[in-house]
Amino acid sequence: MIPGDQKLYSDVLRPVLEAVADRMIPEDTWPSATDSGVLAYLERRAGEDVTTWKDLIEPGLHTLDAEAINLHQRPFVELSANEQDELLHDLVYDRVQDWPVSPKRFFTTLLSLVIEGYYGSPESGGNREGTSWDMIGFRPGTFPEIDAPVLEPELSERTFDQLQDQYDVVVVGAGAGGSVAAAVLAESGLRVLVVERGSWLPYSQIGSDHVRNHRLSKYGHNTGPALEGNPRTILLANGDERITAPFEGDYHNNAMTLGGGTRVYGAQAWRFHPDDFRMATRYGIPDGSSLSDWPINYDELEPYYERAEWEVGVSGDGDAHTGRGRQRLHFPMPALPRTLEAERLAQGAANLGWNAGPVPLLINSVERDGRPACGRCGQCVGFACPTNSKNGGHNTMLLRALATGNCDLICDTMVERIDTEAGRRATGVRLVQEAAGSIQRRQVRTNHVMVAAGAIESARLLLNSANDAEPHGIGNRYGQVGRNLQGHVYTGAYGLFDDPVQDGLGPGVSIATCRFAHGNADGIIGGGMLANEFIRLPLIHWNRALAPDAARWGIAGKETMRDSYLRTSHVQGPIQEIPNAESRVRLSPTVKDRFGVPVAQLSGSVHPESLRAAAMLAEQAETWLWAAGARRVWRTQPGGGLSAGQHQAGTLRMGEDPMTSVTDPSGRVHGYDNLWVSDGSVHVTNGGVNPVLTILALAFRTAENLVKQT
């Protein structure tokens, strides 16, 4: 409903809407769209997006009814099912003329809404009692015998008035890198302030909306940032600037909440391959790229990988993936049991002679630190953990930091700039927050600043902290801040099997091969990892996992969902992205956020060598699925636009030379003795695997370097 309790469609149109929805998802042995409560969902969406309803859906329904009368001399609701379907098919293929709106756009928009109402979250309206989930075999929660959600700890937050005037260290961001840094620093006796721009969101507040999460963010995210007041912009090839909202893909959002991405991540805990640190030496530097070696090697980081695995908590099999560098200790927890899909893929790998094994995960496979083992729920990645078994910054290292009594935490607060002295030393930070409807600001002095806001926001902060000595931003004397932005191009394939390959056991990802990390044919630079995918939400299955020619509506579409959901396997992985200097973060010259701070302006594209590697890896994913017994396989195709997303990295890259890097090998900004960076922005390359363990390991190392200096 809209304000005034007025319906967004007339009583005349409601029967037409019901009839169309019931042809999109008809009744068979399972309920139709309207019997499943889809109309309640449509009313909610109509109230949230009045423009689409008034300008597209309502005119389309009017015109469809008129078309029925014109062709059959009867309104749409009186036509036979076959006649209704024929009319709807004509819309799909644009076989009608003189419509006030695009008939195909009307149909596809309404179909998408009906699908959301039928297969989405019951609490959103629609999918009454989760009937459609029962129909296809999706189990969202933990096993009945597991108590969930597990109570989460109370985290003591400070207000502006409770902050000290000066701290030994201010840590900007409470994600993976910031939480580790806070713990190491506070446990060393330093007085630490952690500033998090997001909120502390308990499990119940993050929720489980299937269209508002970090896996499918069609209408927003379940952590933030809020849609209003937090834009970014895209610099187009012609020089124009386009605003992008947080839920759009080219925003490259990461979770904005206490714990950052670790609050809702899939928690794959891979070490980088030794050759990931020497890509330029091994492969040379492709034209148009900024590929470079790291200033440190695997052996230097290995003790910190070990520390991250044991102190944050990784489950896995240390013998599963040989050739990835020395690993002195096994993981502290055994791997989670294989899923049915993993068993099938293990058979396929054996048939091919490939080495494949469990995926290391920052998830408890056994009880640890007073938190239980994984409850194997059906909606892991993109959501908070119902059993608090996923090990993130919020429930491991940050708790340690706060337990010392040396650490203050303030949330819903942004660091808008870093104060410096003569462009050589950080002296404090400027904080800004919105409270009680007004914007408040405060300055805090500090002996050290540790920046850990993520590659995009960390670069934005340094750029916005320009001063007389560095008029283009801190650390930006040579124009390197914000350059080399990278994430991961994902590629792979889907396979449809004769028998079920999904058993509904989360987190889903269970088996991987790293045989394509390096040493591939045809001059491929680097490579990547392949693993089976996390459990798919039903809406993700409909949007992304159906065969290209699969029926998507009508009785056939319903049968497609019912028959394919448990019989589809998805193998995919990230490739070692080739960075380039023109993929970058700048400050927008025209757009500011709700605090008046220039927003991040993003630009760039994927290097052609990254797309070549992606094509190779997709071909190998297809080979694996055939060998596992799939009866049909189709590949995914990555785009060529900027790649950053939740694996964003590279904007403050580490190096020996200030002319080509922003931070030195110890993690300090060149030219400063007290300004440090502890997130993925220091990555020179981002590995052919998920980068969080490397972020954690570097955070231990960087924080240790800071402590040694005090």
Report what the structure shows:
With 710 residues, the protein is an alpha/beta fold. It folds into two domains: 13-136, no CATH class; 164-213 and 224-488 and 575-709, FAD/NAD(P)-binding domain (3-Layer(bba) Sandwich), CATH 3.50.50. The protein has helices at residues 13-24, 38-48, 50-72, 81-92, 103-119, 131-136, 176-187, 203-206, 279-283, 298-313, 340-352, 397-403, 455-464, 538-545, 554-564, 608-627, 692-709, and strands at residues 166-172, 192-195, 232-235, 241-244, 407-410, 414-421, 425-435, 438-451, 490-496, 512-513, 530-532, 568-574, 584-592, 598-603, 632-635, 675-677. The strands form three sheets. Strands 1, 2, 5, 6, 7, 8 and 16 form a seven-stranded mixed sheet that branches. It has a five-stranded antiparallel sheet with strand order 10-11-12-9-15. It has a four-stranded mixed sheet with strand order 4-3-14-13. A hairpin with a 2-residue loop joins β7 and β8 (438-451). It is globular. It starts with 12 loop residues before the first helix and ends with a helix. Residues 1-6 have low confidence and may be disordered.
Q: Count of DSSP helices?
A: 17
Q: Give Rg in angstroms.
A: 26 Å
| β-strand amount | 5-15%
CATH level 4 superfamily of the largest domain = FAD/NAD(P)-binding domain
Could you tell me the mean pLDDT?
A: 95
Q: Please give the share of residues in helix.
A: 25-40%
Number of domains: 2
User: Which CATH-level-2 architecture of the largest domain?
Assistant: 3-Layer(bba) Sandwich
Low-confidence stretches: 1-6
CATH topology of the largest domain: FAD/NAD(P)-binding domain
The largest sheet is: 7 strands, mixed
CATH class placement of the largest domain: Alpha Beta
Shape: globular
Note the gap between the termini.
60 Å
Structural class comes to alpha/beta
**What's the total number of strands?**
16
